[in-house]
Amino acid sequence: MRACFLNLHSLIFSQTSKSFTDHLSLSHFPLEHFICLFFPSEVCFICRSRKKVMAEEETELSDNQKKEIAKWFLLNAPAGEIQYVAKDLKSVLNNDDVYDEAASEAFPVYNKSHMICLEMSGRFGDVLVTSYGELQGNEYLDPKTAQVAIVDHVKQVCTEVRPASDEELPTPYVEEYRCALEAEMLKYVGEAYPKGSCSVYCINGKDVEGPGYDFEIVAVISAARLSPQNFCTGSWQSIWNIECKDDIQVLELKGKLQVGAHYFEEGNVQLDAKHECRDSTMFQSPDDSAIAIASLIRHHETEYLASLEASYLNLPDATFKDLRRKLPVTRTLFPWHSTSLFSLTREISKELGIGK
């Protein structure tokens, strides 16, 4: 189990902008955290160069330190894999109180950051767990059905459903724009992300009764393809903030896209690609505005996916080649045509009697 857990987090490849080549980096999780967590009865002094580890005297991590280390592992679990990490952590910690406290703090953050989709009871469909739909406690609004789901974050299930109150919903004027955009987004997501879900929320100005005032809505898309039996998982999240500026009749869009992939068959590589973009269009009727917004979202997301595919095509000839050292440590090419310049060559020639 120790080897398996180390393998789960040993290598992380990170890409944080358009250029796959410029932001491909390798990092390791803190080795001292791993050692202290798995061997709490031993004290390991790890030199900054990490060339040697010496056990000289005994120490014991406090429960709070163990909790923080456990939270780190949970929060950094790839999409759809937190339950596997949690299972190993619970076994390693061997302390239910510490584990329960770490899980209760880490799971809500993880679920919202990955915008997980949960099935609501009573045939109401699915609900996205996002900070935009969070009401109070563990309650999350599903604007499509005007229902509120009560979520058990650690078990990642919806335990109860209730109707949303009038105070939790936008006014009919704002709802007309929100609903029109949601209809267009559902069409787009159904075509582009077969296993995806989307929701549209009003996050500012939900009390606006009519023209003359600004309001803001956000469209979120979440899709995941999990295949742990084949040692791979993948996820997509996109968040589109739309500011509806009535005074200048403009809709301003701000998009944040994130793609994640994890491959761990006989290795461990994780991709985390992020991208931001902006655009604008005219503030029109609800239906026309929705069509224009959905068209812009489709354009930017398709363009970004095309750029990722282009980067992957250049991996063998560009990225992987750049990772290799072009010159030896001497910073000069090896003179294969004149190896006699090297003392080792002369010594070998002398020993073998070559050239006599």
Q: Can you walk me through this structure?
A:
The chain is of the alpha+beta class and 356 residues long. The chain folds into three domains: 83 residues, Ribosomal protein S3 C-terminal domain; 54 residues, Ribosomal protein S3 C-terminal domain (2-Layer Sandwich); 147 residues, Alpha-Beta Complex (Aspartate Aminotransferase, domain 1). Helices cover 36% and strands 28% of the residues. It is built from nine helices and 14 strands. The chain has a five-stranded antiparallel β-sheet. Strands 7-8-9 form a three-stranded antiparallel β-sheet, with no helix packed on it. A two-stranded antiparallel ribbon has the order 1-2. Helix 3 packs antiparallel against helix 4. The protein starts with a helix and ends with a helix. The N terminus is likely disordered.
Which key terms come to mind for this protein?
356 residues; alpha+beta; Ribosomal protein S3 C-terminal domain; Aspartate Aminotransferase, domain 1; 3 domains; 5-stranded antiparallel β-sheet; 3-stranded antiparallel β-sheet; 9 helices; 14 strands; extended; disordered N terminus; actin filament binding; CapZ_alpha/beta; F-actin-capping protein subunit alpha
